[in-house]
Design goal:
This protein is α/β, with parallel strands linked by helices. The protein has helices at 22-55, 69-80, 83-108, 130-133, 135-157, 163-179, 190-199, 202-218, 291-297, 319-338, 350-364, 395-407, 414-423, 426-439, 448-454, 461-473, 476-479, 511-518, 559-564, 574-582, and strands spanning 244-249, 253-258, 264-266, 270-273, 302-307, 343-348, 371-377, 411-412, 459-460, 483-484, 487-488, 498-503, 525-530, 548-551, 567-570, 588-590, 603-604. Among the domains are: 27-54 and 66-218, no CATH class; 244-389 and 474-609, 3-Layer(aba) Sandwich (Rossmann fold). It contains 20 helices and 17 strands. Strands 15-14-13-12-7-6-4-5-2-1-17 form an eleven-stranded mixed sheet, with helices on both faces. A two-stranded antiparallel ribbon has the order 3-16. Strands 8-9 form a two-stranded antiparallel sheet. Strand 4, helix 9 (291-297) and strand 5 form a beta-alpha-beta unit. The protein is globular and about 85 Å long.
Length: 680
Amino acid sequence: MTHGSGSDDKGDPTHPWANLTAAELDALDTVSRNLMQASLQSQKLMSNVMQKALEGEAVMPQADPFHAAPEFKEVWQHIVTQPDLMMKAQAELAKGYLDLWSNTTRRVMDKPVEPTIKPEPGDKRWRSDDWTENPVFDAIKQSYLMNQHFMMGLVQGVEGVDERTKRKVEFLTKQMTDALSPTNFALTNPDVLRETMRTHGANLTQGLENLVEDLQAGGGGRLALRQTDMDGFRVGIDLATTPGKVVFQNEIIELIQYAPTTETVKQRPLLIAPPWINKFYILDLREKNSMIRWLTQQGFTVFLISWVNPGTELKDKTFEDYMHQGLLAAIDAIEDATGETSVNTVGYCVGGTLLASTLAWLEANGQPERIASATFFAAQTDFELAGELLLFVDDEWIAEIERLMDAQGGVLDGRTMADTFNLLRSNDLVWSFVVNNYLLGRQPQAFDLLFWNADQTRMPKALHLWYLKNMYRDNKLAKGELDFNGVKLELGSVRTPVYMQASRDDHIAPYPSVYRGARLFGGPVRYMMAGSGHIAGVINHPDAHKYQYWTNDALPGTVEEWLEGATETPGSWWLDWRDWLYQRSGKDVAARQPGGGKLTAIRDAPGSNVLVRSDAKDAGKAEAAAPTPAAKPQTKARPKAAAKAKPATKPKAKPKAKTATRTPVKKPAKARAKTPSSPS
């Protein structure tokens, strides 16, 4: 009887299943059923996705939102007309494959060999031991890396193409080659194959269920890739727990005054303006790494702006509105709360760009004394070297953003913002979760930093388009071409003392870009560069004993010259900044309680703005927000008398900073890879 006859011939000793045990047969049956179920589910899923795509949902990004086809065509037309470039790249690729085949053969024979090509340091896609120890998977890995190197080398080496076009094609080519990594496919990922055998294929069916859930959450065929368990934390209970009160509010901000932890505080209050593209609690994530809590422990009266998560009713709010109803209204409110007419300020990321513009506006209006000092965290005022985000500000992309905002009622949803930033580190923040959630069939774990990263806010149309065009695209602030209602903004006229923080591995505000901005101010500037990236470079509690920072009292013409003369100090830069603030904060006064001045406490920190979730069905309302009394009318900037300088006083038990050493700074070619758990 032949095997193809369809009859049951398992008793035949020549049958391939003859020697399988009952348990093995049962396992094989389970695997077959799971794979069949996965196949059927995937067919149904693809059918639903294609149907949604054909329906043409207006809120869905276009297939080519970058409109990059002309740029790709231009670059590759130049590549094929440069035979030296093509021949060199092809010869290098051919030699690499010959070496790889030879080395793989030697490895199969248990002979030691050196790899033909190695992954970049920090590339965590290849963490599994199989990618190194198994000759087959090692060959797959190296083959992929050589092909990626071949493609990227052609784009990077082409001549006759303007730099912006080349950078755009290079970025998108990197996105495509990252997507095609063997780690992203079940049959070429050893971890997925092992998990499939262990679970008898249940990981694939569970992964498809996860994918269906994420598509349903995204709506309209759009994928809402989960990076963490969004039910794993509650803001105000697990995160953002530093005690304080909301003491002022209007339609754009809540102003939080934090409770003191010392008997005396510095006379001059400290006002923090975080970015409005994220929730503020990155500064107050957990007690062990909270900058806000630490600042209160250093004897500062800390105020913080909590920006509204805007709905469509605020779509016409402008950058100037955010200045008047945000920063300037907060400064007025702080005067009512404390009696102080001058404040120290902090601006983080886009909050720093707003702060710089406000400094120039106050200078032009004869009111520079209202801000005694300005600290900038990872903030740009000159966007000439703003990195890969410049790819998102050409006319085609801005038109696509405007189309999406119109489809969403005049706001840009938080998911679009998150997707944009995730693309800058797609291997860590996209593909690692595709593998974990959909191929391994696992649920994302609760992680505070990724929870914050996913808790995005919306952007008003008028504000966002203005910012993209005037700052990123046209760089008008740095050029002195901005004016607000006829008031020209000139950073060179600003004499306010500035502390400028940058991070060595920042991919959003690259340190060379921040340095260019530091040199625009007309007053004293202390430029400091911290280790790590956009988030970890800023949020580095001294108790963590992590990273390092570099300082240089000079501010020479180029950042390369600054680096040559920089001194490295291990640990957190917060201590250096604290001492700088002490010199500009006046004498010690009795600690101030929130609501103890002319302003009464409205509700407990962290307030209600921060509770509004962009991904909630009822997206315009806060979760369990406290009752809101009538808002105090917004206040406009008004002339004030200059505050008299007060002698600085230091705390009685001032911690000692670690000894500084003159160490050459390692200049990175690009931002270092981070763990998949960090969006920094």
